[in-house]
What does this fold into?
Amino acid sequence: MSKKDIGEEKYKSFVKLIDMGDFVEARGTCFITHKGEQSLMLTDWKILSKAILPLPEKWHGLKDEDERYRKRYLDILTNDELRDIFIKRAKFWQVTRQFMIDHGFLEVETPTLESTTGGAEANPFRTHHDDYDMDVYLRISVGELWQKRLMAACLDKTFEIGRVFRNEGSSPNHLQEFTNMEFYWAYADYRDGMKLVRELYLKIAQEVFGKTKFTTREHTYDLAGEWPEIDYREEIKRQTGLDVLNSTEQEIKNKLEELKVKYEGDNRERLTDTLWKYCRKNIAGPAFLVNHPKLISPLAKEQENNPGVTERFQPIIAGAEVGNGYSELNNPLDQRKRFEEQQALLQAGDTEAMMPDWEFVEMLEHGMPPTCGFGFGERLFAFLVDKPVREVTLFPLMRPLHTDTNPADKTVDSADCHSCIS
It folds into this structure.
């Protein structure tokens, strides 16, 4: 900018009034400096929006974690790495969507509000529908039982990407609100699903990250390498010495106490799942967990030649499951019995047991083709960038700040002006 080109008055106004964070419209001639930098020789300018609060110091940004999440706009503005993560996250879902479309899947939308939750074992959020005067739930899966109805309608390949809600605790791997994708594929089984999922994960790695080798929480793995199958029962037995299919509930409790693993509830399903979670942290992957017990898989088809074990698979990387799929149970008699077992768990106080959906059973009585279903969520993305899932969420839920003053009433003095920052 020169006084000659822009005029002395506008030159002085710019120097006096413009601070870091202001939005300015500038007009002039573009040129390259002798150091090779793109520049603009101003001939005119006007202010579009005046910032009255200072920005964080560019090189250090926001450091307090609570403030970073609460003022995400400032965090992204001053953190190039974080900005890149969210650009990659958008591409992660774009690649996923295009992959499913390219493989002949139809994108659908299913209800977010449900009278009965289904498709997962989780504690739902409850709200009230005023017009119908009835309690409803925010969905805990991306329309699993709805998409299966579409299989019965002969829409043979469907998928949905959407938000899911679970009223449970937070952890580096869990949030109460997150994005998932689920697909359903008629006339396919869990073996077909495993092949497709491996191809999808490899496509995501190559297209979004430009690599297949990753390090997550001290585990290093290559998605282009072999994906061995890990037997649920045999892996627990190898690591703990306990055969979960032939052990009593008390024996599982004793083993958990011996391993100093905290557990909640005393039903066999919860105890078995807790023992597995202890074992999985030692598996770097990539691998497929297979041969899950029927007890912990209420919607999966039982293996024809292996009673008590289901046709289920879960991709594992860095000591955690990053997806869940199975040959869908399409036997209405078997499904009714399993729903009755889940209902008994609910009545006994297990808030994470699956709510029965008797209309879904009726659909199965009309007939549903053999189907493979699979779902995964943003946990996979969080693992690939080696960040807690909260860190890769644009605006994670925060408790409101308790204050007696309205921020709009704040008086800005000279100490708040950008030009006063050294």
Summary: The radius of gyration is 27 Å. Residues 121 and 353 are 5 Å apart (CA to CA). Residues 1-54 form a domain with the OB fold (Dihydrolipoamide Acetyltransferase, E2P) fold (CATH 2.40.50.140). The chain has a mean pLDDT of 88.
